[in-house]
Structure formats: C-alpha cells, structure tokens
Specification:
By secondary structure, the chain is mainly α. It folds into two domains: about 80 residues; about 80 residues. It is built from nine helices and no strands. The chain starts with 5 loop residues before the first helix and ends with a helix.
Amino acid sequence: MANVSFSDIIDQRSDEALFNLLTVERGLYKKEAIAYAEIVFQKRGLELKTLQQSSKRTTDDLATEVKNRLKYGESVAQIIQHFNARGLELSKEILVKTNEKIRIENNIDLSRKLIVFIPATVIFVIACITHLISQSIYRIGMGIFFSILSMAMLRIIYRLLKRKTPQHRLETTQIEK
C-alpha cells in the first residue's frame, strides 16, 4: 500500500469537505494538517462566509465544533474570532455548556484512572497479610506498584493544576461576560 500524506488527501477534498475539515472536524486532525488545509482553502479563493451560508449547520453541529476546537487547544477568543469571520454569532450558552461538558468528561476520565488503583492495592495488601505471597515478592511488587502509582498520581495532579492556570481563568471569565 502506498504511503499517502495528509497533503495529498487534503488536496483531493471537495470545497465542502475542506470547509468541514476547517470547522466541525477541526479538533480531530493534527495542527499541521489544519494549517495546510487553511492554505489550500485560501489558494482556492474560498470564503468562509459564503460556504457557511450554503451549508446547513445546526446548533448541535456548532456545539460539536466548539467542543473539538476547545479540545484541540484553541482559545475562546480564537474560536469567537473564527465564528465572526464566518458571519456567525456564537452564543454564550453554547460556550458555557460545551466547556462544562469537556470539564465533566475530563473529571470522569481522571476518576476512572484513580479507581483502577484502589482495588489493585487492596488485593495486593490482602495477599501479603494472608501470606499468599512471600515477603520479598511483596516488597518488589509494592515498589514497582507504588512507583507506577506515584507517576500516575503526579500526572493527574498536574492535569488538575493545569486547569487552574490564569489563561483558563481569563477564558472562563470571558465566557461568563
């Protein structure tokens, strides 16, 4: 099978498919692919407003686009600017709901990761107390287990702290205004 690059795939897309890539599907692709798609979009002489008017987007499509873009790492200001360039008014309600959905999904993901460690620890401790495993195996296992656990916990703590950055607070206040 031939090795096909993203530039070949993007070049072959129709105008509508390219518009979808730059809007609804934006968060699903690498930044390099999106940047190349924007260049192709400009080379074709396409305008966001005209394609936006011809496409029939629903509120759910816009919410999906906002969610993908926020997960992609775009700031709220960039998203609002892009929507304005397309002649759309991005409602505060969509931003707040989408931001809340992303926050809830991240919290669920973090809690799933934490829940995995609790039963494993309990089983390991019970096995040691009941002498089902030898003391040396227990020490080696606990050393490995807690080193992995500590790395996972540090990663989770980092992700939690990362959410409370000044940039996040600024964007949250921009949404609420």
